[in-house]
Amino acid sequence: MSWGSPRVLSGLVAAGLGVLLISLGGWWFTLLVAVIVHLGLVEFFRLARSKGIRPASKTTLAACQVLLVLSSHATNQPLDSQWSLGADAVVPLASLVICGWLLLQPQTGSIADVAASIFGFYYLGVLPSHWLRLRAIGGVAPLHVQHWTLPTAGISAGLALTLFTTAMILAVDITAYVCGRRFGRRPLTQVSPGKTVEGTISGCVAAALVGAGGAVVLGWPLAPWSGLMLGILVALSALVGDLVESMLKRDAGVKDSGRLIPGHGGILDRFDSFLLTPAVVLYFVLLVLPLLSW
């Protein structure tokens, strides 16, 4: 693959834009997540409709955006504030509205319609919203990051953790792809025939090494082992996210979820590994790291 190929060029452009908006944080980062969520949901509902499913697409799209806006605002508020509680309340209320909308249609919704709508809301709304909490970790859980050793004074804990998480995901994706094409011999699963055991193991090792290095830089307890543990968890969650998207495409009978990104396919094809991982990293920081520091 040459450096001038559409896949490489579009990847570099996306990476540069992503780093810029992650660095800016705040509503700029929220905008990035909101655009990815919206476009990903459009692709997901297109896959669902190809199977004869009639999801509550507009209602779900609106609910996801409301969740992201409230979640972004809540990151600057106390955990028990009305904004924070409002963001938490969106999940059950959105589920209620989605089901109610399907009930009011001339042709009452089916199990598949309800399942696709609720799954789309959770898969491409609730899970990605954890990126906003991750980016604002210093405000969400200040006691959990007060002893971290940040690389420079200009980098907040949230920025460092978000870039750290992104680096682990990219390490998985890039290493698994390169090593899988070069050394892959044994298929991993029928869901995604292109994935190999060798590529998957290489990706896990790369994420573990990046995780170990990041833990040392951030001054985590039991570093580098705590980072090694997180790197493996990130690799597994990225793999599951990738395979879930492959399963959806296989069921719909398509190769790519879309054609938006040259050389990569659709939004889901490029960002499937980014959907499950922020929640894994966030709760590792909030629940596991305090236990390791005892």
TrEMBL record:
GO MF annotations in UniProt: phosphatidate cytidylyltransferase activity
EC number in record: 2.7.7.41
Biological pathway: Phospholipid metabolism; CDP-diacylglycerol biosynthesis; CDP-diacylglycerol from sn-glycerol 3-phosphate: step 3/3; Lipid metabolism
UniProt-listed InterPro entries: PC_trans
UniProt-annotated location(s): Membrane
Reactions that this protein is recorded to catalyse: a 1,2-diacyl-sn-glycero-3-phosphate + CTP + H(+) = a CDP-1,2-diacyl-sn-glycerol + diphosphate
Membrane association type: Multi-pass membrane protein
EC main group: transferase
One BP annotation, GO: CDP-diacylglycerol biosynthetic process
Keyword Repressor: no
Keywords: Lipid biosynthesis, Lipid metabolism, Membrane, Nucleotidyltransferase, Phospholipid biosynthesis, Phospholipid metabolism, Transferase, Transmembrane, Transmembrane helix
Primary site of residence: membrane
Sequence intervals crossing the membrane: 12-41, 83-104, 152-179, 200-220, 274-292
UniProt key word Plastid: no
Signal peptide bounds: none
CC terms in the record's Gene Ontology section: membrane
Family listed: Belongs to the CDS family.
Protein name as it appears in the record: Phosphatidate cytidylyltransferase
